[in-house]
Amino acid sequence: MNPFPQKKVLTFNKHFKDFGFNVNYGDLSFLTPAQFGFFGTTNISEIGLSGVDASLEKHLSDTSSFKGVKAHFKMGDSGLLVLDSVEAVYEKPPSPDLESTLSKIGKKFTNLFSGSLPDTETSEESSQTDAKESEADEPESEQKSEEEATKNEEKVQKDEKVVPPTTVKPENVTNDANKTAEEKEEAAEPQVVKEVLEANENILDLVAVTAEEFKDSVELLALYMKKDKDRAANEHAKNALESFLIQYQSDLGEESFQAVSEEEEREKIREVLSEVGDWLYEDGSDTTADVYNAKLKELKSLTGALSARETEFTQRPLALKALKDVMNFSEVFLNGSRNLPEEMQIYTDVEINMLDKVINETKDWIKVMDAKQRKLSPTVRPVLLIQDIADKFTALDREVKYLLNKAKYAKPKKPKAAKKRIGHRRKDRNFRE
């Protein structure tokens, strides 16, 4: 729900020529004298309208009525009241022949569901016509009129007997009459004609800004935006430094970090982290992002070797296991490819030998490098690195995928040997015969 009205309409029905009006604030008695002094002018705008007399000459007549000039105001999200449009409103009687197609269809549906029939209406209209004719002929002969009246009554009774008594009910007749009356009232509604008028609005509660003042405002806005951007960058850099300090102080107590470092190295790192933490919460609590980023870079340089050893120590077994798994799969695939029958063989000797070579080289590399790594202490830089294991994995996986894709789209060879055997069998049969 909006705390203020979004639209407002002012109606002027006593002005027949071009006029103007002022829009002012209402009751401001709730403001204190000090607040009213800061409020400024109570005049919002001055509006002048033109084209009123021309519009009256165009639309006003003996059958039409002038309903006034309506000014539509709109209040935006900023709380400023702005003139939206101004229009002159007239009402004209409806045309006697004006009846929409939907109204006609509605009447037919009403008669259909109410039970009334066209024959009944015709009979009633004919009886009324005959009654009027009998009244017109009354001065000529009373006897003749009485006979005609009797005939008309009999005719009406006969016409009424045509309709079954169950089809026409008093309720239906009443409803039809009410609906017909409502339709006539709806059809009799006057036509509303609106014509837009020209309006000139002069804002009074806003002081015009000079070009120099506008330039100063733009520069001030740019300065505020830069300050907001710098403040956000400083907060982000400060949070990053603080998170690194807290996280690494906690990591130094983990078993994996203790396994790959000496106590002397960890103590040295703790001292530096403590110094930076004291500085962050005291002298460095309100500094720039560049200073925070420089401190973070120094800490990462100090702890980089230890973090790298810890990552290699924890991730190397997993990488080796993945490499051995793909190597075992490659060996099974190689053996299966070599044992294919000649008529089903789709790989060349070069391709099979290439996969065999890569598998053997990977085996030898794992054996040599794993032996070297076992001889080293966890606290020194490892020689068996995760990246090297990943490179070997990629090379072996590439060869296997190449052969699998070839098998997917390869076409079987023609059975040449089978034709030769059939020919031999035929020769044997002929010889026997």
User: Mean of the pLDDT scores?
Assistant: 80
Strand content: 5-15%
Instruction: Tell me which oligomeric state these chains represent.
Output: single chain
Q: So how many helices? A: 13
Structural class comes to: alpha+beta
Shape assignment: elongated
Strand order of the largest sheet: 1-4-5-6
Notes on the structure:
The protein has 433 residues and is of the alpha+beta class. The chain is built from 13 helices and 7 strands. Strands 1-4-5-6 form a 4-stranded antiparallel β-sheet, covered by helices on one side. A 3-stranded antiparallel β-sheet has the order 2-3-7, with no helix packed on it. The chain is elongated, with a radius of gyration of 51 Å. The termini are far apart.
Brief descriptors of the model:
7 strands, 62% helix, 13 helices, alpha+beta, single chain, elongated
Summarize the structure.
The chain contains 13 helices and 7 strands. It has 433 residues and is α+β, with helices and mostly antiparallel strands.
Summarize the helices and strands and which ones pair or pack:
Layout lengths: L6 E6 L7 E5 L8 H7 L3 E8 L1 H8 L5 E11 L5 E12 L8 H14 L3 H19 L5 H21 L7 H18 L3 E6 L1 E6 L7 H41 L3 H5 L3 H19 L7 H50 L10 H27 L10 H24 L6 H17 L1
Antiparallel strand pairs: 1-4, 2-3, 3-7, 4-5, 5-6
